[in-house]
């Protein structure tokens, strides 16, 4: 009998998503009450840090996928050469 992991239950996954979204919203709203000491005018915009983080994460994912086209090796890359050295 295999033990089920707590993340196998869809109800727990939905609860986590809701909790993370609430935490994200509270973090963005906290920008009203915290002096961020911006260095540039664009940093004064409401939600700039959340948007900047999202766009940066998206660009890192797209960049990693793009680099994968140049860096990936075939599945048989390490099994092709069986010489003893």
From the alpha-carbon coordinates, what is the Rg to the nearest angstrom?
Answer: 22 Å
Count of distinct structural domains:
1
What is the average of the pLDDT values? 88
What is the distance, rounded to the nearest whole angstrom, between the alpha carbons of the first and last residues? 46 Å
CA-based shape: flat
The helix-and-strand class reads: mainly alpha
The helix count comes to: 2
In terms of per-residue confidence, which ranges show pLDDT below 50 for 5 or more consecutive residues? none
Count the strands? 0
Describe this entry's structure for a reader.
The protein has 85 residues and is mostly helical. It has one domain. Helix content is 52%, strand content 0%. The protein is built from two helices and no strands. The protein has helices spanning 10-29, 48-71. The radius of gyration is 22 Å and the shape is flat. The chain starts with 9 loop residues before the first helix and ends in a 14-residue tail after the last helix.
Please give a handful of descriptors for the protein shown.
flat; mainly alpha; 85 residues
